[in-house]
UniProtKB/TrEMBL annotation:
Domain ABC transmembrane type-1 stretches: 75-281
Gene Ontology CC terms, in alphabetical order: plasma membrane
Organism encoding this protein: Paenibacillus agaridevorans
InterPro entries on file: MetI-like (IPR000515), MetI-like_sf (IPR035906)
Lineage: Bacteria, Bacillati, Bacillota, Bacilli, Bacillales
The protein's name in its UniProt record: Carbohydrate ABC transporter permease
UniProt record similarity statement: Belongs to the binding-protein-dependent transport system permease family.
Compartment(s) where it occurs, according to its Swiss-Prot or TrEMBL record: Cell membrane
Amino acid sequence: MVERATWSRKLFLNFNYALLAFISFLCLFPIVQMIAISFSSGTAVASGRVTIFPVEFTTDAYRYVLRNKAFMDAVWVSVERVLLGCSLQMLLLVLIAYPLSKEVSAFRHRTLYVWFFMITILFSGGLVPTYLVIKNTGLLDSIWALVIPGAVPVFSVVLMLNFFRSLPKEMGEAAFIDGAGHWTTLIKIYIPLSKPGIATLLLFSVVGHWNSWFDGIIYMNSPSNYPLQSYLQSIVLMKQDSSALSVLDQSILANLSDRTLKSAQIGLGAFPILLVYPFLQKYFMKGIVLGSVKE
């Protein structure tokens, strides 16, 4: 029998819905206003007339940004970083998590290797030693300085081995009986059955690499090698250089301002993540809890 909700229960639910809607509005308002500013004229922004809708609609800010060589170079560095970093990270995660997901009877020194990786979560070498290692290995001011230091996130390794351990071990045993080796079992059984978990960790990896900005400032000597988020951080802290406007198009100068240019660049920087997330979202909720419950 379904129990009827009392008036106090309805009042509680309505209050929760209203509170969550208000919090969502507070979270979305800065983003919506930033987009509105990017599509508004500089005079409208300077006079404070822009709230959540563009005033004196114009795309001149985006036209300038897309013709800005420094911005496009930073976009390419970030794209290269995501492609290299995510590929290397997912490869290493699978190769590390597979043997660690085995029982001690199948992998005698499993516990020792687990602690070898877990110790990196408890203790860190620190920023200065890490910088010296990257400098002395010749990675400074190269794309590999952004990719290799974070190639093995141990937290993701723990999630991945839990994904593998949640699979029925009888399937692996049946594959070995049929003559399959570890490589065949991993590629044809474990990886296809772990798509939700792999997609979840891939999303974490893409967002982490795309949004990271601090390592680009630390490890890149030349601003021309900055990834996009490091470039955006540098322009937010300084006045936007519009000296190239006279070279590009004098007619759009009146519609631009420092705030419209910054808003357009930040909006373009967030767009790829907003574009990728819906394609992986169907795996996200399933993958994040996969392996969390053991019988």
